[in-house]
């Protein structure tokens, strides 16, 4: 694959539908890093190493030195929003970052201004922005987005573009006939089918032009046959859904550990308090349902109650999200996990995660953008399920079950990178331990 | 290796130095399982599956159906203790299990009576049992243990024996000259060298007779050159140290997750409250030091501050254990983890684990005994570092760094089992995902 | 008042509408105490002391030695339920108490059998018991209850009866015209007015006969003018609403402490998980609303945002209850309290209360029954707001604001007891300190 | 008493031995308040109301409008320290307050410069400041402090001075012969008796000159007969010990609540993590012991195991403080409380208090200074135990037991203020409830 890989020449445009807390935090961080004011902590592409060759420590380069990622120096930002604030203003309102830091980045941030959004309040009842395209129908809206992208490319002289959805969670939708084929979908765009949410219009616009599109919210968006078919047709990488941060991140860390030790689980109660715009959106029942479905699935795949009915057959899983303004972006989760061990004796684990929503999400946006661009240059297209490491509810290629165990997800991601660069799987301690055992056995 | 594997014929004796809370809980559980009163939850050998062949779900047998482990029906128990209580009495005093369950198992439990222990209060100041061998010196003590084992084998008609140390933590010792060779060690036994702790006398007795010995406490015990050399000479499997339960179990689950996501860690404060005999022993500073050293090491290996100085270079790790009688065996840990993400913004994780010490440890004793016996029948000997999955401070073969990441430990364990049975590594989703990507790439 | 007090002669019948977890736990505990199997922990009437005379320690008798309460030896139990289970069966199903204890009390418990309940599923949607009176209308239902009480008194030879509502929370109702007067209410009973909930029928039946009635659920029940007027007319003590246990108990302990120290509060998030019948009932939105209203009020009264707008003017208070079957009766609450201090710096308090619903409620039922009987013998009638110590949402006499600070509530309760017995308020340390100061000042 | 009260004329000097985190935070806050940049949250003297007259709401003035306290406008600050930093520098190093706020206050803060401290590292092993008086002996040191105070008064034109000890915890000392009388103490000063700690030298210097002295650390300091006798002789108010903040504050809020409800307590485990200079000092075993003794006492007085042996007779109370640099001044406590209720069923409460040491302590320093000055003007002298509201281990007048229940402490404080101003105790709801009951009874 190495020979096919196109180099990261020229500038990479990262376009973000939704220039709110997450997007502005990511952009501010990249600029702060470029200026030497900060480190890109939490970003695997910028700080992570990869094991190569004959074992741990032998060769362990930074990922960004191993695969030809776009450099942070070459990245340009743009996007759409339903509020007219520039990124400096948006970041200031979001109150995620210290105002003194934002002030130091003001010259760069205030030049990034949103384009008018494709938006319909019917899908996100608790928001009411006014900076919205007045298109005749969804088809026209898609065409306007395509023109927006073209304009952005020209004005910023970028050679490549990727799009990462950083907008709000839309109300719950299920895949239906209009999503089944490209033709049906395009007809639906033209007759304003209500089953086509705004995020799908963005996805269509991007993928129809061969622009990689990753979905960071739990909406269907790219997870419908029409967009998958289009991606295969235009040879475009797509991926989703829902950035894995906070509580679900912790859940997909802890659950594999319980499973490893054959400890049973009878109940898992998860509550969240959150006071930012995301919390406000999820305070609406229909939008919460989209999120709930995304969050509920992870335990089943990891614990496999089908294989371990005695351990996980009776698991009661409950998730709640509460809008709680005093915390702003400082999302906080509390989990109570009821487990049992030897002789069915019960034990409990309580996890209180005082996290920051946008701080956790920002580096994921960056990594997903850079990896989506890399995939495209490597000739990969369709659903990029090797990026499920970043996602709460991974969209997979047909017939492939989703993997939610974060450690298996990371192994997959690294294995794909090694395959890209024609590197064999390394021999770790594992192998050394096995060898040592075998030598002895003779 | 398959052809070399000796079958699990006849009875297996499991001998336990220390018939206290952990040992009696394990024994009671095995008997309850045999009687159909309970399930062996928490035991990988009894409830775990192993992935084989062409991927998840294709072949996924129970481990105990895949490798020829001794059956629970064929296991016989014995041991030594400094108190004369039989196992029914010991379990009743330990107050780990419901008295009504113990009463149902009384006929079986009360027939298991300890042999007199090799013990010296100088190594465990807070205990004062009187059921102790009065040997002329440590060499004689070892010989008496060897005779004990022989007697046990005859009386119980067992074909094989393994020993798992379930005794208390001894005071802190460092390896010194007397531990450097078999000859020096045997001389030390004869002249009562204070650097030879009682647990080493047991280890010597076992390994000199080709009996596998696993150490569940943080003492040096088998982790000295003399015992390693002896194990290689007598072709005996050995392993240690310190059952990984409770707080350290949770730590080696969570830390790999933070590392996976490139999240920085500035501090990790761990406190424990515990009211059983183990807690009492650790209330003495010298014994706590042994435990502390065992517990402190795990983060370094997992987080690799050498590779990620920006993320883990300043990590402050503090561990406390407090004797707290109101909780009895219901050990409880509270961890505060100070992490940082994007732009160095700080977040916190608090984990409160309301666990049960002996409930978590019991299945580990069983698994380690069964795997040590399996290893011996497979012709494996020396340090069995593939069992580090169960251990807080894994002893490794020379030159092989310890692995503390519980997920890598489990992979190693399963890989060794597959190798034993000449099974190739399976293709998981990972591989399917890669294949899918490659097909597309062509 | 001492001379007017009637002695506690003869037996006291405690009748309980709702013989479920709380009622059966209370009954079992009283019988276990009578048999010397247990102590009545959590009951102020049985274990509490009262300060008298010239200061702390001078005179400090047990409350039950100070006021002429009915003795536990003289108490007889009965009640109504929508399930036909006797109290032994009900307690066994509730899984609150150890089955071995229940078996020891079986002879006494199984003789206590419910009478058929007045019930209408329209008020409690998630329950579906069948042991229900088929009355022509609510008036007839009340008459049947009156006959039930008469029968109970005769059969059990009791001299006095009190009723404590231990039934479920009913759906949310607001006081309306039919509740405004005795006449309107009696007309409503006859024409089956939907604003008259079953608990009101019980209250009417009791109060019309001069039988004290205390309401342990958040329903209106006695908190309507009709019942208050009737209580004054028949000279009957009444009280309510909603036993103060668990989270609200903790809240009315902690909030006065924050107020004492002039610490500001910006947010208070309270969540509960609960798996018993109470949790099931509250899983219905209409029933939860009744509970929510009861729980929300307590902070306002304690913190007085009207007087301290800078400290409490922006307090965001959110309460959630989640049905969570794995925990059964082991209710658990988690509170996050956002406070601020000097220079508005923010701090947080997290309280995790692993409580037991019925264990906390049971002694309150007993105390309220005994105090209601005492009040009646002391000639007190109407709303007994001095019992607000036990209640989440105290019903008060007209024009008297509710007091929710548990420490002020306790002071009131003790002061009323002292007044009953013509004892002056004692001089405590407080007074000693003041005296000491004054002496010095001369 | 009203007529005797001297008015708050002229300036009040507040002198602080120890110009570290707590002192500088207090000073910065007072100046910020004067400038209108902040509110004095957490200060009872500045934000608290007092109930007067015929009941709640009738008259409820601010305390500072009710008693003639010194105004914040009239307060002048000074002090001593072992480091030469001015208060701006000290506050900057302490990292308690936002640097931007400190910069806004820099002109005022940097003019406050410490005087050289009386210090001996033998009493505080983990500190090593060099800005120390080189006195011939402790008597001379006291004389130098007296001259310092005189100089401060002249230079700042203050009419009155009070001293509040904001220095470190000294090593554990018990009262001995040298502390028994003024004469013995003065002899000890002259011959450098090691039982006289530096804080006692300050106390002696102050009290000998009639300057009120309050001790905010757990050292003996004023809690010895010599200083008490001297205070009575010079008619000077004194008080101590140990500011009640954080964990002990919470403990004296929650314990009265458990006692109110007759809930038993079997164990109370309290751990603290703290990374400021206070944490460093307490990392030394001898200094921790002083603190431990101060913290351990509070439960006994509140729960009264002598009166309730069944409930509190077996209480196991354990307190730990751990130096944990990652948290700096953000002290954090975690408490596990094991309680039991009806039928001895066990429950647990976990309290995690993420507090800020200096933020909680600063307003206490201010209040104690203002109240000590008020007491002096009211003619009160000797031990001011009515100020125990602020203190972890209240020093009391001879023969008066300490009161630790924060609600009783607050009642006492307010009662003393009312007595000062010749106001009768008000009639609260309590009384209204009683009246209402009595009216009915007739």
Walk me through what this model shows.
Four copies of one chain form a homotetramer. Chain A has 442 residues and is an alpha/beta fold. The first copy, chain A, has two domains: 2-243 and 358-420, Rossmann fold (3-Layer(aba) Sandwich), CATH 3.40.50.720; 247-354, Dihydrodipicolinate Reductase, domain 2. In chain A, 41% of the residues lie in helices and 15% in strands. Chain A is built from 18 helices and eleven strands. In chain A, the strands form two sheets. Chain A has a seven-stranded parallel beta sheet with strand order 3-2-1-4-5-6-11, sandwiched between helices. A four-stranded mixed beta sheet of chain A has the order 8-7-9-10. In chain A, strand 5 (213-215), helix 10 (225-234) and strand 6 (237-240) form a beta-alpha-beta unit. The longest helix of chain A has 21 residues, at 357-377. The first copy, chain A, is globular. The mean pLDDT of chain A is 91. Chains A and B meet through helix 1, helix 2, helix 11, strand 10 and helix 16 of A and helix 1, helix 10, strand 10, helix 15 and helix 16 of B. Strand 10 (346-354) of chain C pairs antiparallel with strand 10 of chain D. Chains A, B, C, D: InterPro entries: Myo-inos-1-P_Synthase, Myo-inos-1-P_Synthase_GAPDH, NAD(P)-bd_dom_sf. Chains A, B, C, D: This is Inositol-3-phosphate synthase.
């Amino acid at each position: 694959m190495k020979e096919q890989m196109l180099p990261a020449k020229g500038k990479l445009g990262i376009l973000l539908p939704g220039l709110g807390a997450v997007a502005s935090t990511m952009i501010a961080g990249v600029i702060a890093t470029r200026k030497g004011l900060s480190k890109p902590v939490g970003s695997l592409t910028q700080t992570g190493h990869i094991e190569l060759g004959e074992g741990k420590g032998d060769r362990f380069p930074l990922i960004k030195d191993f695969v030809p990622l776009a450099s942070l120096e070459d990245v340009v930002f743009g996007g759409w929003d339903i509020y007219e604030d520039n990124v400096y203003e948006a970041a200031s309102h979001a109150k995620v970052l210290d105002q003194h830091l934002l002030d130091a980045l003001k010259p760069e941030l205030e030049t990034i201004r949103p384009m008018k959004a494709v938006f319909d309040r019917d899908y996100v009842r608790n928001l009411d922005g006014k900076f919205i395209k007045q298109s005749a129908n969804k088809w026209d809206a898609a065409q306007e987005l395509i023109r927006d992208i073209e304009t952005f490319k020209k004005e910023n002289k970028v050679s490549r573009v990727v799009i990462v959805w950083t907008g709000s969670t839309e109300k719950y939708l299920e895949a239906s006939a209009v999503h089944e084929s490209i033709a049906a979908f395009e007809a639906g765009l033209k007759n304003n089918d209500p089953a086509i949410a705004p995020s799908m219009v963005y996805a269509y616009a991007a993928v129809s032009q061969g622009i990689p599109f990753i979905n960071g919210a739990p909406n269907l968006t790219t997870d419908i046959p029409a967009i998958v078919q289009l991606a295969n047709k235009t040879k475009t990488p797509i991926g989703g859904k829902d950035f894995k941060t906070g509580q679900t991140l912790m859940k997909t860390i802890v659950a594999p550990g319980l499973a490893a030790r054959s400890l049973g689980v009878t109940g898992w109660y998860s509550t969240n308090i959150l006071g930012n715009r995301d919390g406000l959106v999820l305070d609406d029942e229909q939008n919460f349902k989209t999120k709930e479905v995304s969050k509920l699935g992870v335990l089943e795949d990891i614990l496999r109650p089908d294989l371990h009915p005695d351990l996980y057959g009776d698991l009661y899983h409950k998730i709640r999200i509460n809008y709680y303004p005093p915390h702003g972006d400082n999302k906080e989760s509390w989990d109570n996990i009821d487990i049992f061990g030897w002789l069915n004796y019960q034990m409990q684990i309580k996890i209180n995660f005082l996290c920051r929503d946008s701080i956790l999400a920002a580096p994921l946006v960056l990594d997903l953008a850079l990896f989506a661009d890399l995939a495209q240059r490597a000739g990969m297209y369709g659903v990029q399920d090797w990026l499920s490491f970043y996602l709460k509810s991974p969209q997979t290629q047909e017939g492939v079950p989703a993997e939610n165990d974060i450690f298996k997800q990371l192994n997959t991601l690294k294995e794909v990178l090694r395959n890209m660069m024609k590197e064999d799987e390394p021999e770790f301690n594992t192998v050394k331990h096995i060898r040592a055992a075998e030598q002895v056995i003779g």
